[in-house]
Design a protein that fits this description.
The complex is a heterodimer of chains A (127) and B (884). Chain A is mainly beta and 127 residues long. Chain A contains one helix and eleven strands; from the N terminus they run H-E-E-E-E-E-E-E-E-E-E-E.
Amino acid sequence: MTIADTARIMEPTRTSNWVPVCRVDELEVERGAAALIDGEQLALFLLHDGSIHAVQQRDPYSGAYVMSRGIVGSRGDAPTVASPMFKQVFDLRTGTCLDTLGKERHDLRTWPVAVEHGIVHIRKDPR
Amino acid sequence: MARDTPPKHARHGAATPSAYRDGMSDNTLTRHLVVVGAGMVAHRFVESVRTRDPEGRWRITVIGEEDRLPYDRVGLTAFFDGASVDDLTLSREHFVDDERVTFLRGDAVVALDRDERRLRTASGTVVEWDELVLATGSYAASLAVDGFHLPGVFVYRTLDDLESLSSWVAERQGALDRPVRGIVVGGGLLGLEAAGALQGMDVECTIIQSSDRLMSAQLDAAGGEALARLIGARGIEVRTGTITTRLDAGPHGGVAQLEFRDGSLAPADVVIFTVGVRPRDELARISGLNVDKRGGIVVDAGCRTSDPSIHAIGEVAAMEGRCVGLVAPGYAMAEVVATRLLGGEAEFPGYDLSTKLKLGGVDVASFGDAFGETPGALDVVYADPVAGVYKKLVLSDDASILLGGILVGDATAYASLRPLIGAKLGGDPSAYLLPETDGARPATGPLPDEALVCSCNAVSAGRIRSAVTDDGCTDVAGVKACTKAGAACGSCLPLVKRLVGAELEAAGVTLSSALCEHFASTRAQLFDQVRVAGLTTFSEIVSRFGTGRGCDICKPVVASILASQGAGHVLDGGRASLQDTNDHVMANLQKDGSYSVVPRIPGGEVTPEGLLVIGQVAKDFGLYTKITGGQRIDLFGARLEQLPDIWQRLVDAGFESGHAYGKSLRTVKSCVGSTWCRFGVQDSVGMAVELELRYRGLRSPHKLKLGVSGCARECAEARGKDVGVIATEQGWNLYVGGNGGFTPRHAQLLAEGLDSETLIRTIDRFLMYYIRTADRLQRTAPWLEELEGGLDALRAVIIDDSLSIVDDLDAAMALHVDAYEDEWKATLDDPEKLKRFASFVNAPTTPDPSLAYTAERGQPRPATDAERETGGVLIAGTTLEVRR
């Protein structure tokens, strides 16, 4: 999901559920950022290809709100983040846990992201 | 099969005949199993029958003479370390808490009527049996000497014995205005236990042994001598070859002195006899069961006595013509009889006389054919009288099969050797005995399948092997996912890797040494590739030498390689996104997502003013403070957005980053050295400060710890460090390759008597060579172990310059020393870098609302889930005020 695609398809400004979060240039490539939206904590990731992904900030394995501080990378074609706590690896596109390190599988919630006029928006209801 | 058998009755009450007449009637198919004796073996037997007989074919009555629940007699000495009777009591689950088990305690069986299959107890209770099991155990042997029955003379067998002993010693200690003197007669396993118990009660203790050595049933002469030296060093005197002939009373009526065969006397306020045990076979004798001429009830391999309805197990059973006073064979007999009574086939496998004892820090183990009685047996012996270590392996005549062994002073190898009895040792047998290579070491031979590799998730070596051979795992990650080995703390992963590698190699597959899916090279290869190519960014490196976008494995490795090659600040040049969160925010991530902060305190030397600043910062930011093992102070509970403010205060006061977060130099621990210490021969603090300032900020494959001791007393524990320096009159001795942690290692001597300049130059080269060639997350000890040629090869490279690289190593270290800057000061000076410390991109100073703390011992700690739910005692906010 590239920024351009998302913006065109989602038409964020017409839907009241879309919430502006920050400017794209406030995000660093391949380094997450936490966002606080109505008391809910999200982790935003700007990738090398320009796409932006939003997942829950809470690490399901440790319960700590730290996902934005994980290392971004790839597993095969999947863009990933590794939890900084116990290093479980998640697909940033779907939130699917790709490497549970022997634990029960827990996935991350994800949110639709769109960019309008250089502003990153999140659609509040999770997909 | 219905018999008029006793019903269930009150569990703890004394048995009375009337208790048997009223009560329930049992299922007529149920048979009645009666156990005489309620010790450890009886307990194990009942537990085994009950857990394997869910349909309740057997109803069990246990009759015990002691008025107690079965307890751990092997762990008896723990009683003097503060263990309560409850702590020693064995599980009630399949015993008194089981409704099919009736326990008559405090009552002794006095007669068996084998024809009618019924017995009578001292209280007059009559119990009928379908099957009878005698587990009456042993009593402590006595000596036929005058004064044996004086007050103050004890045996060491039951909890009652220990309670009487304990109160006697307390009474004597109150009555005497000098230390109480104790003598233990008998230097076997139990005698050593008893001596430890006396010492635990502050009694001055001597062991009197009639034979020529301690533990003569388990140890050979040299082993006994080594043990006596170790025991002596712990303040327990040992007299061997000494026969006690008489005990005399003092004015208070209790024992006061012992007389020996040579006419000598020894004063004693308390005496314990541990001169062996005798089987309690009197019931068998009066009932006409066959009894061995040396005592004990004669049983066959199925533990059956001369009466087919009666079995005997444990210390009372004379199997193969002898009784053995160890619990393990008793347990084996209990399992044999349980199996047979439940319809199975089982035979006693033979005595395993292996023993392991740990007494006041002294390790002793004896296993298998410890005396080399097998024809043609060979001994391999390692002895270091100074260190108090004696180890012997007994091998078959071709030195290939392990038959047994003796370990004194260091029995760490016991766990891995004992399962190997009767098996091929593999590798050089001496490798199991030499220091630093004890224990489970696949480099010297295969680890037994039973050996526990991952203690967090209880994964054995065999399970790891089967993950490769049966489950088709082809790498460590697969084995980790499949078995959970290394999934918790990860400290066993190097061992897992070697096991997996060996298993794959055996299957004709070589273990990939690739860093991860993005880089096919090892860390050492990548280090050279990057150095030669002169690359400085991850994008360049991954596009040239790898694939994809990297991951949490290779990115920090590349960051570390670039840092070791003098790339500059960890957050510059696009390297920020490569760093683990710890390096990224230059603090240590804690379980709740907050961080801890450790300012550098070189050599552990800190001014009062410095301490005040640290204390004030902790107080103002509400941080939990704890002294670390590396002689500095850790401040916990700092939120991401607080880190710059905290560090501004610390940097203003002259502190700098302690790199506690990095795979880098942590600390150089020191003792106070010759400047203050009466014994110090060199200025260890000065050297530690110099080394810490030289290597601060040095990135490496794993953390690095150093230590400097000012004399051979080694108060800085330098030999537990990657680099340990110990002062002598002649200069500095340099040790390398030590560590604590999961697999503790003592550092090995690399060079002796160095002057300060040579010392530093040698450490420079050691560290740089390690940094260049070690694997990812490989500490110096395993690196050195895998280095071909070991310590000698290392000396050749860094001292004799066999590879002509020392100039290069020296230059690399010089570059590091010159380029060092404090990461935190540089961060505070750069507004761009400070942006990274926003808590939220859309609310940069709002604290993480999930953080919650509660007070404990006057300081904050993360609240538990339960505390969060109840909402009590929580404290949160920008500052955590705990005290006023």
